[in-house]
User: Which sequence fits this backbone?
């Protein structure tokens, strides 16, 4: 799932702004799926500038609510249940 997300994100950013990597950093928390070797390899392969945040509370991060909705609505056509929806 992360591979598909980052490949599509990079395609979109490349189409919008050729040099986005010079002024953009993708910020992620330290969730295991963000820091897995598979994800790190994808980020390296795509030359995605990334910064990892320290631990935080799910309830203190409203963006998590957006991602829960996004995963259930936009990229989940079969409506497979998600953990936070």
Assistant:
């Amino acid at each position: 799932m992360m591979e598909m997300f980052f490949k599509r994100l990079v395609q979109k950013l490349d189409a919008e702004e050729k040099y986005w990597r010079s002024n953009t950093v993708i910020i992620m928390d330290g969730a295991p799926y963000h820091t897995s070797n598979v994800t790190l390899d994808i980020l390296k392969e795509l030359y995605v500038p990334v910064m990892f945040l320290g631990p935080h509370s799910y309830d203190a991060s409203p963006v998590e609510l957006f991602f829960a909705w996004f995963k259930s609505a936009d990229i989940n056509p079969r409506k497979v249940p998600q953990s936070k929806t």
In short: The CA atoms of residues 3 and 38 lie 8 Å apart. Strands lie at 26-28, 50-52.
